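Q: I'm building a small set of examples for a reading group on sequence design. Run inverse folding on the following structure and report the sequence directly after it, with nothing in between.
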């Protein structure tokens, strides 16, 4: 019995999109592959309106590979890791696991990281990289990355800005040139509404120059190798998930047809409806003004059993998400991303009303 996924990843993928993956394989060193892959890169560049100084790649990996890419290829000696949830904490720990020094700027879960908090730390001049999560999936908080990016480009131009937008990209409004980021990435099982297995990364020329100066970049995590290979051959350095690339190619056609603004507005409308529902019956976990547009984290103020709710929702072919880790049962989350639209969100919230008698 299929449950339609309103968890914040993997999200629901339509049968048509799943079917895209069943095409016959092609060789990854063949001309057909070059055409497929360069086409995808061009579509991504167009969607994100990238200038020549920012470049896109697609890795065959989940998004976490990019924690290691940042740790291996971007951080020179010491990073400042902004944390306000489980994933931003993991990002900082991954950089440490790559052998680099990390200080943590810990912000209370549910609150946003603000430019002033970062400035206080960066003023010491100790850091060469800042890591931050755009959309903290564990808490439903959207950090103000445009303001942070603007401040960093003006006041700390030598510090690289690395952003995890794993659950934000192609749901939230994302213009890397306006943010002024050096690395930003996402996995395909979130707003791209594809199976897990690919990650899209956008990297600045500055970041690539930095990477060239850093020793021990590893193999799969070597950003220079990835982009040099593309420059020379217009292919990926290692065998990619070709089947999933077929589906990404199709997804980019659909996203371009909807337009970046259309995609953002659809997510915004779903988020606003979910927040209104949550405020009526419960309360929001995210600090006001910093709520995610792709996942709403709701404080379980009525002490309902989220586990039981999901069991009942399963009978109605839906699945939402419990709170993450220590937030389980204290919060629950509705992922409104990818292929979902307002009608679908209204439907699942109606079922929750019915089950819980709200
Ligand atoms: C914000 C954020 N970062 C990182 C991850 C890990 O991504 P992946 O499972 O694609 O490696 C997730 C997954 O939920 C996430 O939401």
């Amino acid at each position: 019995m299929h449950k339609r996924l309103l968890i914040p990843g993997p999200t629901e993928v339509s049968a048509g999109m799943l079917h895209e993956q069943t095409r016959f394989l092609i060789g990854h060193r063949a001309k057909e592959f070059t055409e497929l892959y360069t086409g995808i890169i061009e579509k991504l560049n167009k969607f994100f309106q990238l200038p020549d100084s920012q470049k896109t790649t697609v890795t065959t990996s989940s998004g976490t590979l990019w924690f290691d890419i940042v740790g291996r290829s971007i951080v020179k000696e010491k990073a400042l890791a902004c944390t306000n949830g489980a994933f931003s904490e993991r990002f900082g720990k991954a950089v440490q696991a790559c052998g680099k020094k990390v200080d943590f700027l810990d912000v209370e879960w549910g609150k946003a990281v603000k430019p002033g908090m970062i400035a206080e730390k960066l003023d010491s001049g100790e850091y060469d990289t800042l890591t931050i999560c755009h959309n903290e999936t564990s808490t439903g908080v959207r950090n103000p990355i445009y303001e942070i990016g603007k401040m960093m480009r003006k006041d700390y131009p030598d510090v690289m800005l690395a952003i995890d937008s794993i659950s934000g990209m192609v749901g939230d409004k994302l213009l890397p040139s306006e943010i002024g980021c050096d690395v930003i990435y996402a996995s395909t099982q979130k707003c791209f509404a594809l199976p897990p297995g690919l990650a899209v990364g956008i990297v600045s020329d500055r970041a690539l120059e930095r990477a060239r100066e850093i020793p021990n970049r590893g193999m799969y995590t070597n950003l220079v190798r990835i982009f040099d290979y593309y420059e020379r051959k217009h292919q990926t350095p290692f065998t990619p998930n070709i089947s999933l690339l077929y589906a990404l190619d199709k997804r980019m056609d659909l996203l371009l047809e909807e337009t970046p603004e259309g995609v953002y507005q659809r997510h915004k409308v779903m988020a606003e409806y979910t927040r209104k529902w949550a405020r009526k019956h419960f309360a929001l976990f995210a600090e006001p003004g910093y709520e995610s547009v792709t996942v709403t984290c709701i404080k379980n103020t009525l002490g309902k059993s989220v586990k039981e709710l999901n069991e009942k929702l399963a009978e109605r072919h839906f699945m939402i998400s419990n709170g993450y880790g220590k937030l389980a049962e204290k919060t629950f989350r509705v992922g409104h991303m990818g292929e979902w639209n307002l009608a679908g969100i209204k439907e699942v919230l109606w079922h929750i009303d019915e089950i819980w008698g709200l």
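The pocket of pyridoxal-5'-phosphate is lined by residues 9, 62-64, 87, 133, 137, 164, 166-167, 187 (CB under 6 Å).
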